[in-house]
Amino acid sequence: MTNITGTTTSAITSQIAASGTTATASNTGALSKLSGNLDSFLKILTTQLKNQNPLEPLKTEDFTNQLVLYTQAEQQISTNSKLDQLIALNQNKVTSELLGYVGKTVEVSGNNFYYTKGETNVVKYTLPENARSATIAFYNSENKLVASFDAEKTKGTHEFTFTGGRAPDGTIIDSGTFTTRVTAPDSTGKKNLDVTYSTINRVDGTVRENGKELLTFGKLNVNPSAVVSVLNDAGTGSINTGLLNYLGKSIEAQSDIFYLDPSDITAVSYNLPANYSSVQNISLAVLNLDGTIAQSRLASVSELTSGTHYLGFNSATIFTSSLPTDKTYRFAILRPNNASSTFGGQLPPINIGNTYTTRGLVTSVDGKGVNIGTLNLTADKIMEVTIN
Predict the structure, then answer these.
(1) pLDDT of residue 29
(2) What span, in angstroms and rounded, lies between the C-alpha atoms of 77 and 272?
(3) What residues form DSSP beta bridges with 297?
């Protein structure tokens, strides 16, 4: 009887290895092929058992090893498939995060920038110390000189503006990718200073290139890690990019100042640490920012119990009548006094600590924090965020 144990084992191993190789290329195809090879595997295995040498039968461990090899290949394919799913989910997450930059004006480190004719770009460079002289030059995508002129040579950051289809020296230019180069020898004239660059431009979109998600500025793709800051609509005042997460969301923040929205309800709250219901003639008041009373009314007993109380204002009615909207006011709790004061004969607001809050929709962010209409709030004052 022919002994075929060695060759059969090799054949089985080769088939399993082939399935594993296919798994690397395509998990779905590999799993399908492995399933299709199951019949072949079983036929070879049963043929091996039928034709084994009775004097040298197939060892149990060999039989087991062949089954284990097949199982391992199947598990490896399944693992690869799950890894592919995780990678895809992570890529989607990155893309979603980058979408927050689209349409925003950002400052990006580096000396390459894309200029769109008719728009405005700001180019910055920073000198670590005073230079003997400084020359700035701009080159197009073909490395041809477009413009060159003397530049500021003092220590610090200096900037130039591309606008109206012209370089800073008035040279007419078309849309395209440009490179900034500053030559600035040190005070001895023996070596050039290390110059750092950045540009201010608006993000057009995102693109995936060589497995990486990038921001697009015209035809220039930039790694998002190069973003130094995000700028407000005026193009000034750099902000922490994390503040972008608040845009379009309703927040509650610690502040006795509130923004009276012309088209939505404005909510304020106050927290009383003790029960003031036995105190006579306490008023709830809306003050102008100069301290004068815009409107007020006597507080009810229920509004003076200890704890947190909420009030809602709209453009039509505050307490007794309407007030000009799209501006900020101060909310206060006042108690009567005959003495003259900036509060129209009443004492300043009861000192109940920093326990006033305001709620509204974040419409923009800037170098100072987040904005609810014309009210600016620093991030440390935000207590709660609601996704609308």
Answers:
(1) 57
(2) 63
(3) 284
CATH match for 246-386 among 1.10.10.10, 3.40.50.2300, 3.40.640.10, 2.60.40.4070: 2.60.40.4070
Secondary structure letter of residue 337 according to DSSP: -
Q: Hey, where are the domains in the chain?
A: 5-99, 105-239, 246-386
Q: What are phi and psi of 76, to 5 degrees?
A: -65, -40
Position 34 confidence tier, pLDDT thresholds 50, 70, 90: low
Cβ neighbours around 42 below 10 Å, total? 11
Question: What residues have CB less than 8 Å from 227, skipping those under 6 apart?
Answer: 101, 106, 107, 108, 215, 241
The CA R_g of the chain, rounded to the nearest whole Å, is 36
Considering only CA atoms, which of 159, 158, 161 is closest in space to residue 130? Answer: 158
pLDDT in tens, 228-272: 877 654 444 445 556 777 877 889 999 999 999 888 888 899 888
Question: How do residues 122-155 score in pLDDT, each as one tens digit?
Answer: 899 999 999 999 999 999 999 999 999 999 999 9
Domains 105-239 and 246-386 alike in fold = yes
- Say if residues 114 and 217 touch (Cβ distance below 8 Å): yes
What is the C-alpha separation between 364 and 355, in angstroms, rounded? 25
Altogether, the residues listed in the chain come to a count of: 388
The class that CATH gives domain 105-239 is mainly beta
Residue closest to 368 by CA, chosen among 354, 357, 379, 352: 379
Which residues make beta-bridge pairs with 253?
358, 382
CA pair distance 60, 213, nearest whole angstrom: 53
pLDDT tens, residue by residue, 87-100: 554 544 445 567 77
pTM above 0.70, yes or no: no
Q: Note whether 127 and 161 are within 8 A (CB).
A: no
